[in-house]
């Protein structure tokens, strides 16, 4: 019985550690070559968190910066233990950075924010209160008044959001806004890869989190540096949307798509071949010099290839390795 008090003491210390480790908010900030803006951004976030008495962490993901950004993060982390960091060995993209941040986040609510000071940390309290009181899964920022070029950014962005909303069924004015807040269970149940960061609300919807809304937020003019995205992001965005809609519906059952259409195509063209054979036997019509014969033969081959693609897709989907593996050079506070 002598161990009993020691056991209780140890249990108490473990519970105390768990209680102290609970965080209200995790702020995830992916960045690339933003050494000028990071000190100002972190100082701004610290002021907001202290004013509202939030327990928090800031996870900063360096996506292969070539400037002094990582050294800035080290200095900031040394001054504030709430600042954590992940440094990629090379540039992997925003989706990779967010995915690593999601895996590391410990807060009850997880907020994402760009590092270029165009997202205002003053929006944190309103977003936090809204998601907590409204029981939403995701609240996406909506930059109603933008400080971007109307022709090269605003107009394409409106077109992109309109088409995305129609195809996905999620009515957001600004789906690609970097300023979002999530319940912790949402980010722990979605996998972000490739360039899918634009469609995290859609990924969440496919995962069963459909209580998604938006809130107008302030959009700051860029103060330092230049945008890291060009015109190609709009083309890539629509290609990613097509991919994610297909993967969301058939990713776990590719045979249902490829196998179905492959079988239909094979059978229809097999009927055409059978018809040609019958006309050859009964009416002595030639087969090899009729266009229908080559069309049907090609259709049967394509149908077979579709079926094989579905079969291989099933094998891959059931045996695929982790696609989200990235070379991480260094971590801070994690």
Q: Would you mind describing this structure in some detail?
A:
There is one protein chain. By secondary structure, this protein is α/β, with parallel strands linked by helices. Strands 7-5-6-4-1-2-3-8 form an 8-stranded mixed sheet, with helices on both faces. The longest helix is centred in the C-terminal third of the chain and has 30 residues. The protein folds into 2 domains: 229 residues, Alpha-Beta Complex (Spore Coat Polysaccharide Biosynthesis Protein SpsA, Chain A), CATH 3.90.550.10; 66 residues. The two termini are 38 Å apart. It is 52% helix and 14% strand. Helix 6 runs parallel beside helix 9 and helix 10 packs antiparallel against helix 11. The chain contains 11 helices and 8 strands.
Please specify the SSE layout and strand pairing.
Elements: H1 3-21, E1 23-31, H2 38-51, E2 56-62, H3 69-79, E3 83-88, H4 94-104, E4 107-112, H5 124-134, E5 138-142, H6 150-168, E6 180-183, H7 184-187, H8 200-206, E7 212-216, H9 232-250, H10 254-283, H11 291-319, E8 328-332
Parallel strand pairs: 1-2, 1-4, 2-3, 5-7
Antiparallel strand pairs: 3-8, 4-6, 5-6
